[in-house]
What does this fold into?
Amino acid sequence: MTRLILLFIFFLISLLSVFKAPAYYVWLLAVLVTDFPLIFVTITSILTFLGVWVNHYRVAGNLVGVLAILLYLSPIVRTAIIARDIKSNMLYAFRSMYANSSPDVLPKEGPGNFFKLFTVGDKGPFKTFTYVKYQDTSLTLDFYQSEISGKRPCVLVIHGGSWSSGDSRQLPELNTYLAQRGYNVAAINYRLAPEYQTPAPIEDVEAAISYLQHHADELHIDTNKFVLLGRSAGAQIALLAAYTQKFPGLRGVVDFYGPADMVWGYSIPSNPLIMDSRKVMEDYIGGTYNAVPGKYVACSPLEFVNQETVPTLIIHGGNDVLVSPEHSRRLNAKLKHYDVPHYWLKLPWATHGFDFNMNGPGGQLSTYATLFFLNTITK
It folds into this structure.
């Protein structure tokens, strides 16, 4: 009976590979389930195999165990399916940028590598610099030097955290990965809500770009090749900065599950058991939508999409319970309307923060797409 109960519990957990999490701590569990599926497969397999030595509920336990194993494996299978077509899909999406030449943009390592699921990303060295001093505070960035010599492109990374938390040390493995492949990476801290409200973070991005431009020689930065990359709230900042500020040398922007339509987002709040999304937005924007509707429009990146918008990579999980994938659908439609080179990587099983493990199923795909995109817009 104990074995059957445990298997049933793991079966319920396995459902997070398919369905959305109903509450905050269940969402955290969903990140682990979809990022480290082989751990759950191993535990469930052991419990199922123990059925050889039991007499009661053997068939029921084995059936529940097998179903759970199949669900845990589903993100890996789906990753393999998406990985099969991602190269051709991205080549087609950015075909207008290649002229008539054969593009030398394909990453050497493809996604969907089963053996990488047993590993995690590296955390490499970085240097911390103060990039701006305001009257009441100063801000720093962590700089990951490219491991390829010469002046190299620079990726400015903007962390998530509901605009009110988080810092530049968030998910550093991708920063190291990109540095190893020839990109300088600057992960910034920015002023946080509710003490600071929009457009403060946009001003911080502008200050960071200015600092990197002024120190380009000593940091070996090619000032004609900047890219913004943001996660969650940081993606909203990255998109808005990329679409509204005329940064010299800005080549594109990467949007990891960011809110792109703040007006729509306020009208359809997230599950209150997950997050009070309206309170989060009010703290960042400075009031309710009824009080400051213009600021919600001004904070919506998709409102500023036009024919001159920089190339964009959108990455979003279909089971995201913090930032609805509807944001990305709307942004994708607007970019498509204006014929802006872009690609939307859809991960149907993935939840918010699926790239916690960059070598997990979703992390492999997003890392590949990011490197592909960077290679495309900087060469």
